[in-house]
Write a structure and sequence with these properties.
The protein has helices at 3-27, 31-44. By secondary structure, it is mainly α. This is DUF1657 domain-containing protein.
Length: 50
């Protein structure tokens, strides 16, 4: 596997993680949990190109 393909795979994984956290954010009613998910999503954004 080349470096470029590893980077692409890592970015795809990060997008999947972001999507999962967004789903958890929507599903939970716990305000503390929502804040944690929201913060984690914000921290991922700089690493995602889109």
């Amino acid at each position: 596997m080349t470096v470029a393909s590893k980077v692409k795979q890592t970015l795809a994984n990060l997008k999947g993680i972001k999507s999962t956290m967004q789903l958890y954010f929507i599903q939970t009613e716990d305000k503390n949990a929502k804040a944690i998910y929201e913060e984690a999503i914000k921290k991922l954004k700089p690493y995602l190109l889109h």
